[in-house]
Each structure stands twice: as C-alpha cells, then as structure tokens.
Design goal:
Blueprint (H helix, E strand, L loop, with lengths): L2 E4 L6 H11 L8 E6 L49 E5 L5 E5 L6 E2 L5 E2 L1 H11 L7 H8 L2 H13 L4 H10 L7 H10 L6 H12 L5 H17 L9 H8 L4 H8 L2 H10 L15
Parallel strand pairs: 1-2, 2-3
Antiparallel strand pairs: 3-4, 5-6
Helix pairs in contact: 3-6, 7-8
Length: 285
C-alpha cells in the first residue's frame, strides 16, 4: 500500500497503529508511503502510546565457542534484505509532494512550545514562508547577500524557525551537504537541492570571469571553507577571520594583494550571488 487516506477521526490508538502499519509493509520498488490526512489524525504520532514504554534490554547471551565446523543454511531460509529507510510524502497546498524521512528521533517545536512532527513542521514552515519572499527569484536575491540573508534568518527565528530546527529539517530531506537555502527552496517551491560543492563550482567558474588572479585565489579559499563548514562562513563578520586564516594573520599582505578594505568587502559580498544563481539543473521548462 503506497497511500493511506484518513477521512474520518481515529479515536483508538490501536486502530491508528493498524492503519499506519499497512503503509510500512515493504515490497520491491517501495521505499516510502504517503499519508493524506484530512482529519488531523497525525497528532497520534505525538501520543506517548505511539511508541509505548521502552522495553528492558535483553541480557547478553553467552558466547558460543567458535569451531571450524561449517554449517549449511537450513532449507527454505532466505537472508533478509537490509532494512530500508521509510520515507513519507507530505502533499502541500501547491499540489506538490515533499519527501521526508519518517523515522526521525527529532521532535520539532512550534513557537508556542507545542511539539510537532517533522511533517507538521514542514507544513507550518511552508505556510509561513510567503511572508518573507514571493517567489524563488526573490529568495535567491535575499539569500545571495549577507545582510539580507541575516535579516531573513532573524525573521524566521522570530517565527519559531531558527537555524537549529532548519538544520534538522535539512537532515529530514537528506540534504546535509546542501545549503539552508536549499531547505527553504525545497519546502517553498519543491526545488531539488544542490550540494554546496555544486554551488561552489558554479560560483567559482563565474567569479573567475570578474576578478583578478589574487582575488580568485582568495575566493577559491572562501568557497572551500563554505563547502566544508556551510553558509555561516559567508557571514559579513567572517571576512576578517577568513583573511587572517588565508594570509597567516598578515592583513597588510591581504590589502596589498586584494585592494583596499572597501574593495575587499565589496568583492566578498558581491561574489556570493553567484552561489545562488539559477543553476541549469534547477531550471524549469
């Protein structure tokens, strides 16, 4: 069963478990199932009865002495396939589905302190994002400059969507090697995530057409830090530490190489838009 449609309230936890359990049955080619919930029955996932009380761990069994005997498998025994991660599709108001991992240990919290499932968090974030940008191009413009990116992140945090839960959502959509931009674009527009390495390659190729050799070398260094550490490396207050790291604390050498302070800052801020330009793999017909 790939789809579970909940059209009436489910008052019994046993019944709810039976209904959801039908979706977890695997077969070839199935690695996720979709729940269409019209009655908010998914709140049962937050009920302590959903998982029940933890069971006591079994006492370790005594090890059996190893022998050189080779045993044939019993007739009719088939080695079970490795367990596959189950994904859930969440269909949002735009009619497009987003996939998230269903077996997440993380609990998300709303702005008022109410616990939420990852699906509820995704739905809430989707409904709130239009307050901050109207389309993907506007998101690219905002995210492509440190000051407007910081303002957006502060606004999201005020609404209960700080960096920490966004990073957890990044894991839920299996985009750990991507940018937080990709989390927002995926939730808001179902845009396929790009890795930071892919974004860096695109920005590097574009930047090399606009900057001289020493500037390109410094930006290559910045991009390497971005790929390794994430978007925080592009914050405005990271410029001086990056210069010190690249030039071994000799800021005067950096100025001699790259130009005056204002020119360096303009370069550092300006090249970032290339990271979030519309990549060919993202373009739609």
């Amino acid at each position: 069963m790939r789809n579970i449609v909940l059209m009436r309230p489910v008052g019994s936890m046993i019944e709810f478990k039976q209904i959801i359990g039908r979706g977890t049955r695997l077969f070839d080619g199935k690695d996720y199932f979709t729940i269409y919930d019209f009655v908010r029955a998914h709140h049962h996932f937050q009920d302590p009865q959903w998982d029940g009380e933890p069971e006591e761990p079994e006492a370790p069994k005594e090890a059996t002495p190893k022998t050189n005997e080779v045993r044939e498998p019993e007739a009719g025994y088939v080695t079970p396939p490795p367990e596959r991660a189950i994904k859930v599709e969440v269909k949002l108001a735009d009619g497009k589905a987003r996939q998230i991992q269903s077996m997440m240990a993380t609990t998300f919290w709303s702005a008022d302190g109410t616990p939420m499932s990852s699906a509820q968090f995704l739905e809430s974030l989707y409904g709130m994002l239009p307050e901050f940008f109207k389309d993907e191009d506007e998101l690219r413009t905002i995210w492509g400059a440190p000051d407007t990116r910081k303002k957006l992140l502060e606004g999201l945090a005020d609404k209960g969507f700080s960096k920490e839960p966004l990073a957890e959502m990044q894991k839920a959509i299996e985009a750990e090697n991507s940018d937080l931009f990709d989390v927002l674009a995926y939730v808001a527009f179902a845009a396929a995530p790009e890795t930071r390495a892919q974004r860096a390659d695109m920005a590097r190729a574009e930047a090399h057409q606009h900057y001289n050799d020493p500037q390109q070398a410094f930006l290559d260094f910045v991009l390497a830090q971005y790929v390794k550490q994430g978007v925080d490396e592009l914050d405005a207050d990271k410029l001086t530490p990056l210069l010190r790291l690249k030039y071994h604390n000799a800021i005067s050498d950096a100025v001699a190489d790259l130009g005056g302070t204002a020119q360096i800052r303009t370069m550092f801020v300006g090249f970032q838009r290339y990271l979030y330009a519309d990549a060919p793999s993202q373009r739609r017909a």
